[in-house]
Structure formats: structure tokens, C-alpha cells
Inverse folding.
């Protein structure tokens, strides 16, 4: 029996599925695919965090239901992190909620605050949950263009002015996935002022707070005076501590939004497995040198990728933050579009990347390259791409040569 389910109908075909299917087929055929598509950290979780998990999991009392909004110790640890990192005071009881990763947190907050027909402002291109979490909840999303050469604030003001009804919320994400864009506190202050003036909730995704390479550490929007009146912010242990599969994230900030999220979560889950929450507490309270080591690992990979692709003839900007490079499709391939170009890289260079179209229409002329392979494999990826570019150029020259000869032969007197 076929059914067109309401929420499923609102979800477009998953753009990444075609590349993933080709990737699986290539690997099944024995090809050595270098996967730079998914942002899945490859480094080991720091040892002291793993040891705390092992220690706690051996206690039978830790195997029962946990707390949906997070155990007290973990909420206190997150509040302490915000104090030392951003000098922001948080009440662990009313302004902190533990989530099953920031993705789940955003989706459940969308369920908590959204009614069918509400308007949500979301950047484009952006990480899919920023839009589709609200689309699944029944909202309509108005996309705000963002990226190189785009005045986001001007586009935001234009979008808000022409939205009927008035927007309920704005999603922002800096350092940004996929564009790697970073902003300063003054930029946040302008957004906060705009949202407060227009009575718009502000939802900030700060998942890459600790993965930065150039300049000052990225700020939190909650550093802006009065931001907690309208804002909530999501962070995660996934990238900071290489704990992606552990699924521990946080929502912090405005008590009304935190209470709404906590109430919805209380109906949906019992929280993460208690030993994982205890280990996450150890991550936040324990030695922090591992963060710098993880950050340096991504920086070295970034430098290898940018230099290697430059030598291959593909100039891409060096990302100032995140674990991604936002690379414009080379001019000779732009007519193909990002999906076809991504498929071609996989088929002919054995390198998987994420097509920019998967992050929104304004990502069409880009691909996202994840820094998730070691330096040796990153160099190999660059060599493969260089060989692919050279073979394409040679093929184009070869096919053009006879045509030039034919034209010359037809010109009398030469």
C-alpha cells in the first residue's frame, strides 16, 4: 500500500545519496576510495575520556534509565565550560539541556516551538538540519543567502521584511558548515539587536567552537549583553573531543527555549546512556590539551590539502575554521554542476566529496571537502585529482587538435 505521508512529502531526495551509492559500489569493486565527503572525525577519542566510560560502565547501577535533560554533573560541567571559555554565566538547572548531539537538539527544539505555517529564517547554503528540522515540524523556511561576497545582514533584513507572517526564528551557524565562515562579536551583536527588535528567536549552532586555525577563538553569541533574552546556542563534543558517535551535545541559553526543548525531550527519550554522560563530564572537566592536539591535526591536514590542490591547478581558499574546505568547482567543470562534478571525482580520481547543492541552492557551484583522512591520504587525494585534471586536459587537447588541422587544410593558399 502506497502512502504519501505528510512530513516525508516535504523532504526532497537526499542529494548525497547518489554519491554515497557510487562510493559503496566502488569499494565493493575493490577500489581504494579516499572519502572526504562526510564530516566524520577519524581520530581516537582522548584516552582519559574512554577510561572514564569503561570505569562507569562496569557499575551495574549505571545501566538504568538516565535523565532526559542530562545528569546534573554534566550540566554543571557545560556551565563551567561556558564560564571559562566565553565568560558567560549559565544556570545548570534552567539554562542548560544535554542533547543527543546538536542535530537532535535542533530538531527537537523545532518540534517544541514550531506550528504549521510558521516562518523560519535559515542560511543557505547550510547544514541540512538547520532547515529540514523545521520543515519536518511543519514550518516554512525562507532561505537567506550566505557565503563569499554576500552581505548576510542585508539579505537577512530583506528576508524578514518580506516574510508573511513575521519570522518566528533565525538559525545561524558560525564557524559555518559548509562554508567555514567565521564572524566576530560585533557581528553577533548586530544580529542580536536585529532579532530583539523584530521579536525573532535566535538559534545559534556553535558545533565548531574549538576547531579554528587563524585568528582569535570563535565567540559565542551569548557573549552579547542581553542575548539570553532571545537566544539559545547548541554545542557538541563530537568535533571538540572526537566523540561523534557518542552523541552528546548541549543547548544553552534562554530559559523559555530550554524549558520547551526539555519538555519535548521528556516525552521522546531518557537521555544518553549514563556512562557516556559521565565520560562527557570527564571530557569537559578534565585535561584540555587534547583539544589543541585535535585542532592542530586538522590544521596540518588543511595546509596539505590547500597546497596539494594548488599544485594540481585547483586554487581553493584555506578555511579559517571547521573541519571542511568550501571549494569552488573549477571553472572547466562548472557547467556540470556540483553533483555531476562530485560523481566524476569519485569515478575518475577515487576521491569522494560532498556536492554543494546538498547544502542548498546557493551551494551549487561548490563542493565541501572534509579533513577526515591523515596527511598521507590527503596527499594521495591531491595526486589523484591532479592526475584526473591532467588527463582531462590532455583529452581535450587531443580532441581539439584534428579540428584545427582540418580548418587549416581548408584555407586556400596555405
Amino acid at each position: 500500500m502506497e502512502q504519501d505521508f505528510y512530513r516525508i512529502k516535504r523532504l526532497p531526495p537526499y542529494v548525497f545519496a547518489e554519491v554515497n551509492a557510487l562510493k559503496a559500489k566502488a569499494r565493493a569493486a575493490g577500489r581504494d576510495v579516499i572519502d572526504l565527503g562526510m564530516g566524520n572525525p577519524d581520530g581516537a577519542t582522548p584516552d582519559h575520556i574512554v577510561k572514564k566510560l569503561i570505569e562507569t560502565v562496569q557499575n551495574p547501577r549505571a545501566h538504568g534509565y538516565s535523565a532526559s535533560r542530562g545528569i546534573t554533573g554534566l550540566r554543571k560541567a557545560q556551565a563551567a565550560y561556558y564560564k571559562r571559555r566565553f565568560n558567560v554565566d549559565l544556570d545548570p538547572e534552567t539554562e542548560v539541556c544535554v542533547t543527543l548531539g546538536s542535530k537532535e537538539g535542533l530538531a527537537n527544539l523545532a518540534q517544541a516551538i514550531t506550528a504549521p505555517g510558521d516562518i523560519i529564517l535559515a542560511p543557505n547554503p547550510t547544514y541540512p538540519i538547520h532547515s529540514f528540522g523545521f520543515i519536518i515540524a511543519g514550518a516554512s523556511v525562507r532561505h537567506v543567502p550566505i557565503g563569499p561576497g554576500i552581505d548576510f545582514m542585508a539579505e537577512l533584513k530583506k528576508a524578514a521584511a518580506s516574510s508573511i507572517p513575521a519570522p518566528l526564528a533565525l538559525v545561524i551557524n558560525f564557524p559555518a558548515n559548509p562554508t567555514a565562515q567565521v564572524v566576530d562579536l560585533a557581528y553577533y551583536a548586530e544580529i542580536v539587536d536585529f532579532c530583539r527588535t523584530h521579536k525573532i528567536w535566535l538559534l545559534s549552532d556553535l558545533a565548531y567552537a574549538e576547531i579554528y586555525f587563524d585568528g582569535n577563538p570563535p565567540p559565542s553569541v551569548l557573549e552579547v549583553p542581553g542575548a539570553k533574552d532571545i537566544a539559545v546556542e547548541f554545542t557538541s563534543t563530537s568535533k571538540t573531543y572526537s566523540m561523534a558517535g557518542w552523541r552528546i551535545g548541549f543547548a544553552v541559553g534562554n530559559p523559555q527555549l530550554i524549558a520547551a526543548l526539555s519538555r519535548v525531550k521528556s516525552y521522546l527519550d531518557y537521555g544518553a546512556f549514563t556512562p557516556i554522560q559521565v565520560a562527557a563530564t570527564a571530557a569537559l572537566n578534565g585535561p584540555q590539551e587534547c583539544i589543541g592536539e585535535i585542532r592542530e591535526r586538522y590544521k596540518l591536514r588543511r595546509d596539505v590539502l590547500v597546497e596539494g590542490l594548488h599544485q594540481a591547478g585547483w586554487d581553493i581558499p584555506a578555511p579559517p575554521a571547521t573541519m571542511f574546505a568550501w571549494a569552488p568547482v573549477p571553472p572547466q567543470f562548472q557547467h556540470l554542476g556540483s553533483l555531476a562534478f562530485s560523481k566524476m571525482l569519485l569515478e575518475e580520481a577515487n576521491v569522494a566529496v560532498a556536492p554543494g547543492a546538498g547544502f542548498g541552492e546557493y551551494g551549487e557551484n561548490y563542493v565541501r571537502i572534509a579533513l577526515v583522512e591523515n596527511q598521507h591520504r590527503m596527499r594521495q587525494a591531491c595526486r589523484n585529482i591532479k592526475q584526473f585534471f591532467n588527463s582531462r586536459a590532455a583529452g581535450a587537447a587531443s580532441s581539439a587538435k584534428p579540428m584545427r588541422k582540418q580548418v587549416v587544410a581548408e584555407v586556400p593558399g596555405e
Notes: The longest strand covers residues 119-124. The chain has a mean pLDDT of 93. Residues 147 and 315 are 17 Å apart (CA to CA). The chain has two domains: 6-44+290-392, 47-285.
